[in-house]
Amino acid sequence: MNTYSSKLLEEAVNELSKLPGIGRKSALRLALHLLKRNSMEVEFFGNSIIQMRNNIKHCTKCYNISDTDICEICASKKRNSSIICVVEDIRDVMAIENTSQFTGLYHVLGGIISPMDGIGPQDLHIDPLIERVKNDDTNEVIMALSTTIEGDTTNFYIYKKLKDLNIEITTIARGVSIGDELEYADEITLGRSILNRTPYSTKL
């Protein structure tokens, strides 16, 4: 157990070690690194975290993170607004955007159905998705959830909600291995899985 000569340093290490993937040794290295930086740099670093936490928004249309009520993707006239790609969280939006292979819009569910974790359809942004498809000029909904049991369960639930609407329902190709999460797929594989998507009904 580390003995700290400064209570302030110890408190900083305690807070940094609460971050995912950061143990106490890494937290100590980070804290000591910050001590070596000039005060303006550290103040800017701290303020950027506070500003992000206090002022970041969720897009009122797709639930992606945004600095404004409508995110840049939803607001862009260059995007194909007739196609909606359904993803689990914002990391999946970033992963797909990095492929440069998708030009439609997104809908972030905020998770997937997982009874073991107490997460049901009512805890996700599924109802807003259904209303969005009904009210907007949507031609296709792409299911791009992780290829896990929970992801497949969520896909099927959404499919049942959408199947009677006059739209195409597709799923990304299984280039992404079973059990994989989108954020860990390489860009080429993920890009191909988006381009080579198939009708969801063929998976039933």
Give a description of the structure.
By secondary structure, this protein is α/β, with parallel strands linked by helices. It has two domains: 7-55, Helicase, Ruva Protein, domain 3 (Orthogonal Bundle); 78-203, Dna Topoisomerase Vi A Subunit, Chain: A, domain 2 (3-Layer(aba) Sandwich), CATH 3.40.1360.10. The protein has eight helices and seven strands, in the order αααββαβαβαβαβαβ. The longest helix is centred in the N-terminal third of the chain and has 17 residues, at 39-55. It starts with 6 loop residues before the first helix and ends in a 5-residue tail after the last strand.
Please sum up the structure shown.
The chain has 204 residues and is α/β, with parallel strands linked by helices. It contains eight helices and seven strands; from the N terminus they run αααββαβαβαβαβαβ.
Number of domains: 2
CATH architecture of the largest domain: 3-Layer(aba) Sandwich
Q: What's the β-strand tally?
A: 7
Query: Regarding quaternary structure, how should these chains be classified?
Result: single chain
* Top CATH class of the largest domain: Alpha Beta
How many helices? The count is 8
Helix content: 40-55%
Distance between the termini: 55 Å
**β-strand amount:** 5-15%
CATH topology of the largest domain: Dna Topoisomerase Vi A Subunit, Chain: A, domain 2
Tell me, rounded to a whole number, the average pLDDT: 90
Order of helices and strands: HHHEEHEHEHEHEHE
Briefly note the structural class of the backbone. alpha/beta
Which stretches are low in confidence, meaning pLDDT under 50 for 5 or more residues running?
Answer: 176-180
* Most strands sheet: 5 strands, mixed
What order do the strands of the largest sheet run in, or round the barrel if closed? 4-3-5-6-7
Q: What is the C-alpha radius of gyration, as a whole number of Å?
A: 21 Å
Label the overall shape: elongated
